[in-house]
Amino acid sequence: MPSPAVGQPAPDFALEGVAAGERKTFSLADAKGGPLVLAFYPGDDTPVCTRQLCSYQDDLAELTGLGATLWGISPQDLVSHETFAQKRGLSFPLLADPQRQAIKAYGVNGPLGHTKRSVFVLDGAGVVRWAHVSALGLTYQDTQKIAAAVQAL
């Protein structure tokens, strides 16, 4: 499935996740009203993913100051996310997508089942306004680029 193009409605989903030690269901439909950043990443506690998500945590105030919410999404389960978030001090939600529902809907299911490192910025109506899907996933979009996309909404 291809990734949704800029200007298209973002595919809806509902996934279990963990935020601040609490488990709950996160639904795209429930997040409408303000900018939402979806950061798809391959795996908890891997070197590049750890650098990426820790940098987002360090700069989280830059996004929240613009009214944006950040969700990390990967195929690991809730236990893995809880351990990773606690170990690294991550306060934003990490959503578990072991069946790859959202990963496939957003066209970021890569070769050999690896999740492509990708970021989507959605406006308050749930429309994709900026997207970056990495071919190899060895680098990631920094918070300043993402914040600029949010600010442009």
Can you offer a commentary on this structure?
- The chain has 153 residues and is of the alpha/beta class.
- It has one domain (14-151): Glutaredoxin, CATH 3.40.30.10.
- It has five helices and seven strands.
- Strands 2-1-5-4-3-6-7 form a seven-stranded mixed beta sheet.
- Helix 3 links the parallel strand 4 (69-74) and strand 5.
- The mean pLDDT is 94.
Radius of gyration, in angstroms, nearest whole number: 14 Å
List the quaternary state of the chains.
single chain
Low-confidence stretches: none
N-to-C CA distance: 26 Å
Instruction: Tell me the number of structural domains.
Output: 1
Strands side by side in the biggest sheet: 2-1-5-4-3-6-7
